[in-house]
Specification:
alpha/beta, Arc Repressor Mutant, subunit A, 2 domains, 5 strands
């Protein structure tokens, strides 16, 4: 009889995080942010550095689906050995494997990331996020570096059926100006993947201070802005490419906006029709 392989650490944290106690969440946050230390340092040293007892790490290992802490530690070592140390290293690997077809490997990795999203996402949290966005007075999307284009896409889709969406720091809307008027009636969506942009972390912090609901789409519990989030979704980004894959994030964005349209009813349908009409009057679209 074959044994079941241990889970990926990041996926295990994402799947079980909501059920963890405060102490185990602290340990899980440290694990997500310090996998190298987990793999190379003693349990006693990890406990001292994180302020969480060794017994709590043993309980965390079991809560995440590992038989014991040592099995979790071995998984950390395995994942580190498989992870490229830098964009440059992954680019070099692509060059070394230039004779191997990339498309099937990239497609398979993206499909795995999307499947993990579908398998791991908490449907109740997804419904609550959509409800929060549908009722919000104003919705602000923040994305920097590689995430900027996906923030634009999120707001572009949403503006077809709801004119209360803006992208902070883009198209004449400054980041500070977009955040200054946020209140408890508003929502902010942060899209951020490693390497994390400082402005995205600060945007989450300032929005939370203003009382707005903070929704984070990221790739790890190590994202520093997660501490300010009311809701968060973790998406896998693994791929043979030198940069993180956004395939699962794209599916999540399209799912959320689709659910918002479904809830909006006839008003959304009328606005979509009106936006389409004006796009054609302005020759934005080809009449084909």
């Amino acid at each position: 009889m074959t044994s079941t392989p241990p889970p990926q650490i990041r996926a295990a944290i994402s799947a079980n995080y909501a059920d963890l106690s405060d102490t185990l969440r602290t340990a899980a946050d440290y694990l997500a942010d310090n996998q190298l230390e987990i793999a190379t340092r003693s349990l006693r040293a990890i406990a001292a550095a994180s302020g969480v007892s060794p017994a709590s790490y043993t309980r965390l290992a079991r809560a995440l689906g590992f038989s014991d802490y040592e099995t979790l530690r071995e998984q950390a070592r395995l994942e580190l050995s498989q992870r490229g140390s830098s964009f440059q290293d992954k680019a070099r690997q692509l060059q070394n494997e230039a004779d191997l077809p990339l498309l099937p490997r990239q497609a398979a990795a993206c499909a795995d990331n999307i499947k993990a999203l579908a398998d791991d996402i908490d449907q109740d949290t997804l419904e609550r996020v959509v409800e929060c966005l549908s009722k919000a007075r104003k919705k602000v999307v923040v994305g920097s570096l590689a995430s900027a284009g996906f923030a634009d896409y999120f707001a572009y889709l949403a503006n077809w059926f709801d004119d209360r969406w803006i992208v902070a720091g883009r198209n004449g809307a400054s980041l500070g100006g977009s955040l200054a008027s946020l209140t408890s009636d508003d929502c902010i969506v942060i899209v951020s993947k490693h390497p994390y942009a400082h402005r995205s972390v600060r945007a989450a912090e300032l929005a939370a201070e203003n009382g707005a609901k903070v929704i984070v789409l990221t790739d790890s519990h190590a994202f520093p802005g997660l501490q300010f989030a009311d809701f968060h979704f973790i998406q896998r980004t693994e791929s043979p490419h030198f940069f993180s894959s956004y395939a699962a994030t794209l599916v999540l964005i399209e799912t959320i906006t689709g659910m918002l349209v479904a809830r909006a009813g006839s008003e959304a349908e009328a606005r979509i029709q009106n936006v389409d009409k004006h796009n054609r009057l302005l020759d934005e679209l080809e009449n084909v």
